[in-house]
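Troubleshooting entry. The earlier prediction with zinc ion gave an output that would not parse, so I re-checked the input for stray whitespace and re-submitted. Clean input:
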Amino acid sequence: MSVVLTVAPTGPIARRSDNPSLPTQPHEIAEAVEKAYRLGASVAHIHVRDEQDRPTADLGIARRTMDLIAERCPILIQLSTGVGLEVPFEDREKLVELRPRMATLNPCSMSFGAGEFRNPPDGVRRLAARMQELGVKPELEIYDTGHVDACLRLRDEGLLDGPLQFSIVLGVAGGAAATADNLLTLVRRLPEGAIWQIIAIGRANLNLTAMALSLGGNARAGMEDTLYLRKGELAQGNEPLVARTVQLARGLDLQIASVTETEALLGLQRRP
Ligand code: KMH
Ligand code: ZN
């Protein structure tokens, strides 16, 4: 069986002061992505930062990052439309105009740590429709059980095409906690035929990733989700986190899906 491995080199929250190895600028992100690709990642989940390392939805910076990645390797680029808590939804949604192969779709507003993650229902519907028009595959970010239902409503309105691809995000303060019980509950709530991966934030990253792989899920690795390799030991970049996940999957007798296999597994539209 093949498992899809996504690298998430940089998220919306952590700063270099939290881990000096965090890649933030386009060439740093591209370099981290290429290294992850060489290890087996077939999808790159991308957030970009401005010159001051603040999360941004700047189309020029996002375009440049996508181009630098594409020059280095054929990994499938998934742009985050979550971007960062301070960036307005109306700016974030424009990122899909760059026509990445995939992009995230966050179905609901929620508290997010000390901040607020704004995903208004009309905006989410508009973004889902635009992604469908452009052939950009949504990855549905599920932080709690009600988010599954919100996605199913979008599907029933004809705004999402199958197979549905979910990220089960556990460990965000404001969403479901990173526990085995919550993972099982959310997996059971997914519709027939859904594809899913675990995004386990923080300390439970390793154990919940192992559990998800054992349950038939895909995995994500990188500094968006944890800055540490183990308690008290900062990860020296994304590579050790990706390598550890590859090792974990191989130890469970799973193959790592290539880019071509991933395109087929996720039902991505062909691009010329
Ligand atoms: N870091 C994730 C928990 C997205 O990329 O669309 C939230 C996020 C969503 O960044
Ligand atoms: Zn993200």
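This one parsed fine. The longest helix spans residues 26-39.
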